[in-house]
Amino acid sequence: MQCRLNGVNFDQGRRSEVKLLECTGTQVKALGLRGEGIDFTGSNFEHLQFEDTILNSAA
């Protein structure tokens, strides 16, 4: 099953073990996002913007 994300914001959030595999979409943004186990394998977005974001740091 393929997912489609359009106009999604992940602002100031904390996420863990999120798998967005084989996804497509237009605009995906994250400001201040923190997360571990985040996987975008095979995904393609027209506009992907991360600011002050830390993903999969294993710290």
Decide which structural class fits the backbone: mainly beta
Strand percentage: over 45%
Mean pLDDT: 92
Q: In this structure, how is the largest beta sheet organized?
A: 4 strands, parallel
Distance between the termini: 32 Å
Helical residues, percent:
under 10%
Assign an overall shape: globular
| Unreliable parts | none
Order of helices and strands: EEEEEEE
Supply the number of helical segments. Answer: 0
Count of folded domains: 1
The rounded Rg comes to 11 Å
Number-wise, the strands total 7
Describe the structure in brief:
The protein is 0% helix and 47% strand. The chain has 59 residues and is mainly beta. The chain has one domain (4-54).
Protein architecture, described:
- This protein is mostly beta strands and about 60 residues long.
- The chain has strands spanning about 5, 10, 15, 25-30, 35, 45-50, 55.
- Helices cover about 0% and strands about 45% of the residues.
- The strands form two sheets. Strands 1, 2, 4 and 6 form a four-stranded parallel beta sheet that branches.
